[in-house]
Automatic annotation (TrEMBL):
Signal sequence annotation: none
Saccharopine dehydrogenase NADP binding domain residues: 4-121
Keyword entries, A-Z: Oxidoreductase
Classification of source organism: Bacteria, Pseudomonadati, Bacteroidota, Chitinophagia, Chitinophagales
Matching InterPro entries: AASS (IPR051168), NAD(P)-bd_dom_sf (IPR036291), Sacchrp_dh-like_C (IPR032095), Sacchrp_dh_NADP-bd (IPR005097)
Keyword Oxidoreductase appears in the UniProt entry: yes
Protein origin, superkingdom: Bacteria
Saccharopine dehydrogenase-like C-terminal domain span: 126-432
Listed name of the protein: Saccharopine dehydrogenase NADP-binding domain-containing protein
Protein source organism: Chitinophaga oryzae
Pfam family, one: Sacchrp_dh_NADP
Tagged with keyword Oxidoreductase: yes
Length: 442
């Protein structure tokens, strides 16, 4: 019997738990799911004979280390800042670790020790990062094998809502961790464009967004994602003129989020007392000399330079920013207040369906002929629990866990999934779950 330990039973864990439990009888696995919320774990594992719920506080070192010592493989879907705690334990007790999160500077410091211990710590094994790396590398390797010289690489991905579930002015609903949505883009972005390094700060990120055409969906807006340059080496494309990774949204979302940034409502510095503070007073705190006697819509519209009938005003109204309701959340940062409002107003209803859209656009030259390839994937969720987001984040982790425990993969070190021995079998099995790419050439 092999034991798998999963930390975290949140939104992204549903399809992973389903996959592990479906494979458990045949593979002779037992799965322990650890989270602080026992009812949440049980809602995901049901009465399965192959699962044990473990309600623990992740900061409880004794409880955490006991679980890690008793397992054969650890998967972490914890909030990103907690992975390092688990990673250090996995190193101490010689356990392989899989996670969907980005490699952070803290775990980078353990790189030599991980290699020396002969362990595999596979990071970025979810959707984006994850499926994006695997599908991109498969394309890149196939172009290079045929003698193509790549000169431009652009990759786009977004967790969106299916067109039939779009019923609010934001054209967006929360299908994953709301904190990540609120903090997205906060560190700005850097990428390469026609040989020049471009840096975009947070204040400009959602301003005047460019759009791309997605087959069957039409126009989607995109904004560059974090540090694209860091991946040029991983993809072995250090010398190309254009390299960008970007996030997709419906255009209306970017316009509304830009307004929230202008209003100063996404900040993390300093807490404010929200008891007896109305939503409107909170939202206009940074507007100097605002005529609070004027209508709420007028104050906002004047500051943002839009009409009171504009879509942006409708969006702010929808979030409740124009009403006199009191927040009463105690001491919070602006970002925490915003997260509370977003979770409440933009939540998915039980029948809502989400959608993942990913597209790679690669330009290359072969036999003196310039070619552009588009490779895209559109995946839909079933409802507000079995979401496309949960499926695309969770399944790659489950499939890699299976390959590791079957000893079909013997890699070691701190890695991301850019190698054929990982991407070929994982992408192949993902097709069984309707996660597949279509390609077109120009």
């Amino acid at each position: 019997m092999k034991n798998i330990l999963l930390f975290g039973a949140g939104k992204s864990a549903t399809s992973l738990i389903d996959y592990l439990l479906a494979n458990a009888p045949r593979q002779k696995w037992h799965i322990t799911v650890a989270d602080h919320d026992l009812m949440l774990i049980k809602s995901k594992t049901g009465k399965s004979y192959y699962a044990t719920p473990a309600a623990i506080d992740i900061k409880d070192q004794t409880a955490r280390q006991q679980l890690i010592q008793e397992t054969d493989l650890v998967i972490s879907l914890l909030p990103p800042h907690l992975h390092i705690t688990v990673a250090k334990d996995c190193l101490q007790f010689r356990k392989n670790l899989l996670t969907a999160s980005y490699i952070d500077p803290e775990v980078r410091k353990l790189e030599k020790d991980i290699e020396k211990a002969g362990l595999l710590f596979m990071y970025e094994m979810g959707l984006d990062p994850g499926i994006d790396h695997m599908s991109a590398m498969k394309l890149i390797h196939s172009i290079e094998k045929k003698g193509g010289q790549i000169f431009s690489f652009k990759s786009y991905c977004g967790g969106l809502i299916s067109p039939e579930s779009l019923d609010n002015p934001w054209q967006y609903k929360i299908s994953w961790n709301a904190r990540n949505v609120v903090m997205a883009g906060a560190s700005g972005a850097v990428y390469r464009d026609k040989g020049k390094t471009r840096e975009v700060n947070y204040e400009q990120l959602f301003d005047h967004n460019k759009t791309i055409q997605v087959p069957g969906l039409g126009k989607l807006a995109y904004y560059p994602n974090r540090d694209s340059l860091g991946y040029m080496e991983s993809y072995r494309l250090e010398n190309i003129a254009t390299f960008m990774r970007a996030t997709l949204r419906y255009p209306d979302f970017c316009e509304g989020w830009n307004a929230l940034i202008k209003l100063g409502l996404t900040g993390e510095d300093g807490k404010i007392q929200t008891d007896h503070l109305s939503c409107f007073d909170w939202a206009t705190r940074h507007i100097e000399g605002a005529d609070k006697q004027a209508g709420h819509e007028e104050v906002m519209a004047r500051f943002l330079g839009v009409s009171t009938k504009s879509k942006v005003i409708r969006q702010l109204k929808f979030l409740g920013l124009l009403n006199g309701d009191q927040l009463n959340l105690g001491e919070k940062t602006d970002a925490e207040v915003l997260q509370h409002l977003v979770e409440d107003k933009l939540k998915m209803e039980p029948s809502d369906k989400d959608m993942i859209v990913m597209m790679h656009e690669i330009e290359f030259e072969r036999r003196n002929m310039a070619t552009r390839i588009h490779s895209y994937m559109i995946t839909q969720g079933e409802d507000n629990v079995r979401t496309a987001m949960a499926k695309t984040v969770g399944l790659p982790l489950g499939i890699l866990a299976k390959l590791l425990l079957q000893e079909k993969i013997t890699l070691t070190g701190l890695r991301i999934p850019v190698m054929p021995e990982v991407y070929n079998p994982v992408l192949k099995e993902l097709e069984e779950f309707d996660i597949r790419f279509e390609e077109s050439f120009e």
